[in-house]
Write a structure and sequence with these properties.
By secondary structure, this protein is α/β, with parallel strands linked by helices. The chain is 46% helix and 17% strand.
């Protein structure tokens, strides 16, 4: 009995010592450079937004927050890298619904979003815009729906590939509006946009910065944006929700995550700092230039966003009958 008592005392002392060490570690964080992994190639919106935030985190703590691009497999490679990193807050992930939600729903991935990651903060949201060829005789969402109902399957919509956000945005729109649209997948947003401008396809749900020059030149027409709020970049363009499809929302987002098991104190410090950074007026302007709206959130609120989006995309993917082996070449 005495031996067992000594054993329990030793275990208790060890737990206390470990807790104190973690607390001290959190208070000193960051004491060395931090990697922010972007699971896509440089130059995309995820990369640009991650670099903006990383720069300000560097200034906040006088420790380098270094963006590291680990592209491949639709974001799976970089995402899995962070999923297997030490849970110490020194390897973070900048990601969106593509690798965190859509990929796991459509194919087998080597990580589990709920199990392997600790949400830190929602950084920004970036709705798409429903852009149409001016030759299409539809100047509003209601007119587009009426035309699609009169000619089922005649209207086609382009995307950057099967399973990409523009594809799923179109699939959700068709399902909620009760219409039949023909999906035309491309190997990337660039070719899809080229054919949309050229008239080979009629509509597409694409990122605002991508299509904005063509909207301004009159080569494309904007019918609606896919978020629940109007975009500051397109203040006169209504949302799909207010245009006759109530409840419709596709609002791609970018967020910061740590490895699951990272001390709560570190996650909290990162969350507070990231939220303060993205809500700064200068940062809001920089994000708006990328067609994104600044957010900032608690870890709990960001986790709720991931959970809600998982439920939404599960329904969309099931309705669309998407197959994992059909999504090669997808660009999120």
């Amino acid at each position: 009995m005495q031996t067992m008592t000594k054993f329990r005392a030793a275990v208790s002392a060890g737990v206390v010592a470990a807790s104190l060490a973690l607390a001290a570690h959190a208070q000193d964080y960051p004491s060395r450079p931090v990697r922010v992994v972007v699971p896509f190639a440089p130059g995309g919106p995820n990369d640009i937004i991650a670099r903006l935030v990383a720069q300000k985190l560097t200034e906040t703590w006088a420790q380098p927050f270094l963006v590291e691009n680990r592209a491949g497999a639709g974001g799976n490679i970089g995402t899995d890298y962070v999923a297997k990193a030490p849970p110490d807050g020194y390897t973070l992930l900048s990601a969106g619904p593509g690798s965190l939600i859509i990929n796991p729903l459509m194919e087998k991935v080597p990580y589990d979003t709920a199990r392997d990651f600790a949400p830190v903060s929602l950084i920004a949201t970036a709705p798409n815009v429903l852009a149409v060829q001016p030759s299409l005789p539809a100047k509003s969402v209601k007119e587009l729906i009426a035309l699609a109902r009169a000619r089922p399957g005649w209207i086609n919509y382009a995307s950057g590939g099967v399973g990409s956000t523009p594809h799923l945005a179109g699939a959700l729109f068709a399902a909620m509006a009760g219409i039949d649209l023909a999906h035309v997948p491309y190997k990337g947003t660039g070719p899809a946009l080229t054919d949309l401008v050229g008239g080979q396809v009629q509509i597409a749900f694409l990122g605002i910065p991508t299509v904005l020059p063509h909207l301004r030149s009159g080569k494309l027409r904007a019918l609606a944006v896919t978020g629940l709020r109007r975009s500051p970049e397109l203040p006169d363009v209504p949302t799909v929700d207010e245009s006759g499809v109530p409840g419709y929302e596709v609002n791609p987002w970018y967020g910061l995550l740590a490895r699951a098991g990272t001390p709560r104190e570190i996650v909290a410090r990162l969350s507070v700092a990231a939220t303060r950074i993205v809500r700064d007026s200068a940062m809001k302007e920089k994000l708006a230039a990328q067609g994104a709206e600044a957010e900032g959130s608690t870890p709990e609120d960001y986790a709720a966003v991931i959970g809600a989006d998982t439920a939404t995309w599960t329904r969309v993917i099931e309705r669309a009958g998407l197959r994992a082996d059909a999504r090669k070449g997808v660009e999120k």
